[in-house]
């Protein structure tokens, strides 16, 4: 995804740099648990087909190119952030 951080990631990095967050010592059990969570989150085990306008697809492809990622990865990332509540959609 390149070197760009979103606002949430920048906030975490800022907190770490300022000393608000610290590395955890002796966390092998906890690390395995979180690795399992990450593996399940990143597992791409479902296929979804969508129809969209050519205009929207071109705009998404352009944004993905700006981020330096394939457009399908970009779409998946945006959908994950919506599902996770980090991006909200307002009609």
Can you walk me through this structure?
The chain is an all-alpha fold and 91 residues long. It has a domain at 48-91. The protein is 58% helix and 0% strand. The model has no long low-confidence stretch (mean pLDDT 84).
Order of helices and strands: HHHH
Q: Strand pairing plus helix content: what structural class?
A: mainly alpha
Number of strands: 0
**Quaternary state, please?**
single chain
- Please state the average pLDDT score: 84
**Unreliable segments of 5+ consecutive residues:** none
Roughly how many Å is the radius of gyration?
A: 17 Å
Question: What share of residues is helical?
Answer: 55-70%
Q: What is the rounded distance between the termini?
A: 28 Å
- Report the sheet with the most strands, covering strand number, pairing sense and barrel closure: none
Beta-strand content: under 5%
Shape: extended
Number of helices: 4
How do you describe this structure in short?
The protein has 91 residues and is mainly alpha-helical. It has 4 helices and no strands.
Please supply descriptive tags for the structure shown above.
single chain; 91 residues; mainly alpha; 4 helices; 58% helix
Topology:
Blueprint: H1 7-17, H2 28-42, H3 54-67, H4 71-83
């Amino acid at each position: 995804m390149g070197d760009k951080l979103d606002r949430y990631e920048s906030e975490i990095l800022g907190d770490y740099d300022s000393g608000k967050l610290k590395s955890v010592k002796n966390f092998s059990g906890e690390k395995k648990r979180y690795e399992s969570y990450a593996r399940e989150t990143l597992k791409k085990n479902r296929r979804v087909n969508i129809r969209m306008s050519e205009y929207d697809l071109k705009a998404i492809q352009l944004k993905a190119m700006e981020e330096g990622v394939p457009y399908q990865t970009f779409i998946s990332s945006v959908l994950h952030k919506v599902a996770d509540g980090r991006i909200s959609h307002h009609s």
